[in-house]
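Entry type: protein chain
Record version: 2
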Amino acid sequence: MSGQIGGLQTLICQEYPFAFFFHCAAHRLNLVLCQSASTLPSVKACFANISAFSSFTSLNPRRKDLFRSQGIEVPHPGDTRWCYRSRTISVIFNKYNSLFLVLESIVDNPQSWDDGSLTQASGLLQYLSSFLVCFLVFVFNKIFEQSSILFNVLQDRRIEFSYGASKIINLCNDETFTETYQSTFDLVGHPSSRSDRKHNYKDIYLQLLNCMVFMLSDRFSDIENFEFLDLVNPNFFSAWKNKVSSTKLNKLMTSYGPLFNFPDRESQLLFICKDRDFHKENASELLEYIYKFNL
């Protein structure tokens, strides 16, 4: 749909030359999170293992009922990939001890369960005991906390376009890594298996987050072109006082220059900033107010 030759954006721009194509920001964030989780082999393998929790319950009503009786609801992979993954991570993070006990009860009672249930429950117990899996659950739970906020920001009509990837960047430090590693150690002890001991966890942590920050910066690089939209964002009005942001005005001139008389536009914006009647919740309410009074 975004093709430069015959795509929808090209067809629209032929009729409306001042129209700008902007790919869904929340969908782009979903792509960043999914693709960054697939860049490192250890992380990709971890998510493949984690998906087994959903398969374990979705294919067998008895197992699902057992999980539900302990307050465990593993999501189905029907949502967008990242939503499904993040919700599964959240369940494992918040219900780790309950999950372990339920799976252990299946393994300890072989006479009550079929061979498939026993085999899968045993495998899931190994995943939960793996230092790498638990470490990545802790890491992605932190990422999920920030990405959930960012999802909401990107879909909020009061959006501040300079939000960027700052919250993810804030996780890239030794202190947060040490805290995450210690939390994993407190839960499962030192890396014990040969596969767990071979990993350099700090490298995995920093590579994953740096990759995510790079992809965010790359996929959202064009968002700066739309900073002029903040000119009608009432959340900024009180900060401008006697001068409108020249950077945002220049962005507006670049995008829609032929449509405006800029000396008049700046003075009108200053008037709006100073008049409290224009300080609405968002740009849509401001536009409605301007039309209502024929301003």
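Comment: The CA atoms of residues 247 and 257 lie 14 Å apart.
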